[in-house]
RNA sequence: GGCGCAUUCGUCUAGCGGCCUAGGACACCGCCCUCUCAAGGCGGAGAUCAGGGGUUCGAAUCCCCUAUGCGCUACCA
């Protein structure tokens, strides 16, 4: 097996949005494939008809594409091992299920969902250690079977799990894991609607598609002995298993919607960079050493190794993601940043702002906002004052803590007369305004603070003179006049 | 309940018997820079390595027990 080429797969189920945890699994598979020069395959596990969600496949694939994760075989591009939709491989699973029954490794079960539910309820009530199928149909006589068939019941196919012995396997990160067969139940292989369960389809396809390594989430560890048993019943050679630590929510349980955004597309829409997501997600469960944590994708591919995947689940830290995203934004060229930012501004700036948003103008504000950004969507709100007509704020904001109304008015009036005479460049603005502060008997900080609120509507903004220069004389004078109005009212 | 996996600063992690009086990063606090906010620089606080037994000259690192957490326990994946 180890001599074989690396062939790994990402096998999402189209039952919802592209969950961050699933995407991370895809990412690890992809990194491993690219690192070892193997193949990365996408296979759609659409065997649950009732839970199928329209548009889910495209959303998942889009998420991967956005991150730059590409595949060598898959639903859209095909490949030598297709089809890559399990719903198109039903005949294969059915044939193998029949084979398993014929060989005595599986059997037909006619139990109704109702009987099963009742049985489990009773078991729970009696506090029995086992809460799974009671093997009612495991040893049905031909006669009994005929009776059920005559009633028109479509059976499911169940695996005939060995009653004793144990099953163990060597997980590449967990090591040797052993289960008593007696703790395993006779799980369903083929449902009554003719679709296979995960267990059957997974094993059959991994074998047929010559998958060499299975890297999947930790939650699968418990079903691995069933899979091993199936491989052996089918006389297939099992792949190498690696169970990945899970991504957890802030309370330490499996990351889910109640923890906040869990779909990769939400992060895209909030204005996170693919590079930041890749870097961050990889570090949730993998590390190179004791200090490196900023990686390009190429570096990740170069260094990635199964041995350095950690064993424990990791809590998803929004804080660190935001820091990392800010880091990548700061490292962009102004032109790149502008192109990334523009669509977000178009979409999220207040309606009153004329569209299309001016590229040249955005180019001008980039140097002022670049180091202040953490996400693009946030920029549309935080720096809207650059675009709108008049910022909206409470008059008291102009006064701050120590300024009296009279002093503020006097300062703004003087500033206005000075400003009217000036050309709006950062240097000339500073040259005129700095002395004015002392003439007014104000500290520069207080005076500039006042002007900052008047011109931007906020106490926190990029450097004042540059901001005013970009805003332009006309806008600044109008805003200061408006500020005076607020104070006099 | 049963089975399985896990357990190092609040969080992500380094550590695979002596280099550890446990290193880095995010977050937090302070200082510097400074017109505010950031960014950046410097510094600080923060983990008796879940607890208890062993093994060893020596254990965060190996073994056992306990506790806790998480996962699985569907005709879902």
Structure described in brief:
The chain is mainly alpha-helical and 489 residues long. The chain is 46% helix and 9% strand.
CATH topology of the largest domain: Rossmann fold
| Tally of separate domains | 4
Based on helices, strands and strand pairing, what is the structural class? mainly alpha
- End-to-end C-alpha gap: 82 Å
CATH architecture of the largest domain: 3-Layer(aba) Sandwich
* Morphology: elongated
Strand content: 5-15%
What is the H level of CATH, i.e. the homologous superfamily of the largest domain?
HUPs
Number of DSSP strand runs: 11
Topology, element by element:
Layout: E1 7-10, H1 20-35, E2 39-42, H2 56-67, H3 90-102, E3 106-109, H4 113-125, H5 142-150, E4 156-159, E5 166-171, E6 175-180, E7 188-190, H6 198-208, E8 213-217, H7 224-234, E9 240-244, E10 247-248, H8 264-270, H9 274-283, H10 297-303, E11 314-315, H11 318-330, H12 334-348, H13 359-369, H14 376-382, H15 396-399, H16 405-420, H17 426-439, H18 444-456, H19 464-471, H20 473-488
Parallel strand pairs: 1-2, 8-9, 10-11
Antiparallel strand pairs: 3-4, 4-7, 5-6
The structure holds one RNA strand of 77 nucleotides.
Structure description:
- There is one protein chain.
- With 489 residues, this protein is mainly α.
- The protein has 4 domains: 1-77 and 245-331, Rossmann fold, CATH 3.40.50.620; 89-244, HUPs (Rossmann fold, 3-Layer(aba) Sandwich), CATH 3.40.50; 333-383, Orthogonal Bundle (Helicase, Ruva Protein, domain 3); 390-489, Arc Repressor Mutant, subunit A, CATH 1.10.10.350.
- The chain is 46% helix and 9% strand.
- It has 20 helices and 11 strands.
- It has helices spanning 20-35, 56-67, 90-102, 113-125, 142-150, 198-208, 224-234, 264-270, 274-283, 297-303, 318-330, 334-348, 359-369, 376-382, 396-399, 405-420, 426-439, 444-456, 464-471, 473-488; strands at residues 7-10, 39-42, 106-109, 156-159, 166-171, 175-180, 188-190, 213-217, 240-244, 247-248, 314-315.
- A 3-stranded antiparallel sheet has the order 3-4-7. A two-stranded parallel ribbon has the order 1-2. A two-stranded antiparallel ribbon has the order 5-6.
- A hairpin with a 3-residue loop joins strand 5 (166-171) and strand 6 (175-180).
- It starts with 6 loop residues before the first strand and ends with a helix.
- The mean pLDDT is 95.
- The chain binds one RNA strand of 77 nucleotides through helix 4, strand 4, strand 6, strand 11 and helix 11.
């Amino acid at each position: 097996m180890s001599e074989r080429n690396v062939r790994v797969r990402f096998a999402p189920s189209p039952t919802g949005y592209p969950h961050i945890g699933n995407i991370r699994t895809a990412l690890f598979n992809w990194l491993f494939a690219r690192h070892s020069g193997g193949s990365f395959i996408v296979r759609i596990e659409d065997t649950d008809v009732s839970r199928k969600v329209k548009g889910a496949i495209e959303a998942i694939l889009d998420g991967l594409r956005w991150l730059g994760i590409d595949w060598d075989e898959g639903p859209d591009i095909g490949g030598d091992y297709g089809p890559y939709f399990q719903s198109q491989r039903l005949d294969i699973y059915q044939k193998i299920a029949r084979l398993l029954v014929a060989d005595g490794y599986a059997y037909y079960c006619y139990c109704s969902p109702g009987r099963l539910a009742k049985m489990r309820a009773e078991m729970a009530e009696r506090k029995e250690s086992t809460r799974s199928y009671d093997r009612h149909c495991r040893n049905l006589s031909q006669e009994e079977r005929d009776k059920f068939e005559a009633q028109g019941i479509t059976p499911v196919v169940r695996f005939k799990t060995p009653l004793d012995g144990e099953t163990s396997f060597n997980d590449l990160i967990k090591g040797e894991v052993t289960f008593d067969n007696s703790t395993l139940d006779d799980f369903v292989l083929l449902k009554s609607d003719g679709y296979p369960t995960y267990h059957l389809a997974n094993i059959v396809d991994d074998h047929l598609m010559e998958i060499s390594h299975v890297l999947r989430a930790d939650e699968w560890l418990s079903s691995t002995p069933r899979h091993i048993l199936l491989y052996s019943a089918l006389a297939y050679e099992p792949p190498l298993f690696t169970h990945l630590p899970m991504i957890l929510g802030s309370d330490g349980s499996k990351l889910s919607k109640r923890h906040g955004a869990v779909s990769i597309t939400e992060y895209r829409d909030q204005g996170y960079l693919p590079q930041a997501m890749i870097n961050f997600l990889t570090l949730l469960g993998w590390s190179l050493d004791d200090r490196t944590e900023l990686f390009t994708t190429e570096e990740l591919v170069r260094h990635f190794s199964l041995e350095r995947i950690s064993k424990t689940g990791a809590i998803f830290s929004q804080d660190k993601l935001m820091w990392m995203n800010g880091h990548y934004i700061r490292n962009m060229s102004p032109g790149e940043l502008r192109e990334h930012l523009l669509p977000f501004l178009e979409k999220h700036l207040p309606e009153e702002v004329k569209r299309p948003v001016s590229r040249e103008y955005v180019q001008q504000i980039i140097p002022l906002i670049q180091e202040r950004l953490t996400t693009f969507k946030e920029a549309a709100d935080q720096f809207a004052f650059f675009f709108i007509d008049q910022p909206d704020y409470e008059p008291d904001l102009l006064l701050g803590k120590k300024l009296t109304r009279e002093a503020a008015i006097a300062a703004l009036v003087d500033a206005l007369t000075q400003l009217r005479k000036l050309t709006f460049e950062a240097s000339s603005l500073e040259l005129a305004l700095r002395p004015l502060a002392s003439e007014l008997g104000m500290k520069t900080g207080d005076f500039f603070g006042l002007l900052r609120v008047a011109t931007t509507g906020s106490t926190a903004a990029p450097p004042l003179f540059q901001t005013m220069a970009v805003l332009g004389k006309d806008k600044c004078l109008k805003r200061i006049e408006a500020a005076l109005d607020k104070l006099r009212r």
